[in-house]
Prior knowledge:
Layout: H1 2-29, H2 33-46, H3 51-63, H4 67-80, H5 85-97, H6 101-114, H7 119-131, H8 135-147, H9 151-167, H10 171-184, H11 189-201, H12 205-219, H13 222-235
Helix pairs in contact: 1-2, 1-3, 2-3, 3-4, 3-5, 4-5, 5-6, 5-7, 6-7, 7-8, 8-9, 9-10, 9-11, 10-11, 11-12, 12-13
Amino acid sequence: MKTAAKQKESHSVRKQVWEYLEKGLKFEQEGQVGKALETYARAEDLDPNFAPVHVRIGNLLLQQEKYDQALDYLLTAKNLDPDSEEVGILLGRLYLAVERHEEAFSELKAVLNRNHENFAAHHCLANVLSNLGKPMEALQEYQKALNNSSSFFKEWIYLERGNLFKKHSLLEDALREYKTALKHNPLNPHARSQLADCYEKQGKGEEAVKHFKVLFKISREEQWKREIERLEKGQN
């Protein structure tokens, strides 16, 4: 009877923890970070050995760039659930952010050893390899990410591939990637501004102006108007 009672109590606690996690996620989505953290803290108080609680807190702290605190929670989550792909990816992103590239590489490779189709791990690993000065290996990982991602993420992967080519002054390759990103989403301001910048670097000011005009038309932001005026002044 005692065992049954304990099981019932444990089930009740876990149910309450999930309710806190769902409530905290709603606060996150509304941009109420403080309330989200307070709600997750209540979940942690109820069940400090439940890995998803530490994942939620660690992820939110990572988004806030509170890397030391985030690392503590994510390492706790890893100890509680060593095979979690989500934890491995979050640790990879954190280590990448603080330039601990070898540790990021190790975490992401471990995820891919368990699931070679995890596009998020391929994507993050590509960024790590790019920072390690291995562009060809990075491009291979970006391609694997493309092969396993949804259409929504493809535009961002093409954008990052373009940035990699641009970094190495391969402007024609960069242009191709930015144009492909815009095929997926013509309103992506990052792809279009990088496209304009590539055209300017190639000495094609008129092409650059066309894209800055599109950006200004979409957003009405003054920065694009200034770019247009600067380029048009240079052409006269």
